[in-house]
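Re: that backbone. Tokens:
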């Protein structure tokens, strides 16, 4: 079992920035993928960005050039730097982990609200 705890959400004006962090309860060395998903009211949960154990990143088209994902294996954390936020980025953001056995874990979510 792995527990994921997100932090850094909040309210920001359009054009502003937020930094989300996700701390894992155990080592993430060898974890296949860590990433962030988001879910807006009435919509499905969609991938925002993820990063593999080798450092390969993938981003949703809507956030490319604005968001940056990184992971720190020594600190068991994954971070999402979000810049140039728009109201369309408003959602609950969930940290996600998939280990070498394809077991999947989710955090409890953190609210991001961008006002216009």
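Recovered sequence:
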């Amino acid at each position: 079992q792995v527990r994921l705890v997100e932090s850094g959400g909040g309210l920001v004006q359009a054009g502003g920035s937020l930094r989300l962090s996700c701390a894992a309860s155990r080592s993430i060395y060898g974890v296949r993928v860590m990433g962030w998903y988001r879910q807006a009211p009435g919509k499905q949960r969609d991938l925002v960005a993820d990063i593999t154990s080798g450092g390969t990143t993938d981003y949703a088209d809507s956030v490319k050039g604005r968001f940056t994902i990184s992971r720190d294996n020594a600190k068991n954390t994954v971070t999402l730097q979000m810049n140039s936020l728009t109201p369309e980025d408003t959602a609950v953001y969930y940290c996600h982990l998939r280990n070498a056995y394809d077991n999947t874990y989710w955090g409890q979510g953190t609210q991001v609200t961008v006002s216009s």
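The CA atoms of residues 49 and 59 lie 4 Å apart. The mean pLDDT is 95.
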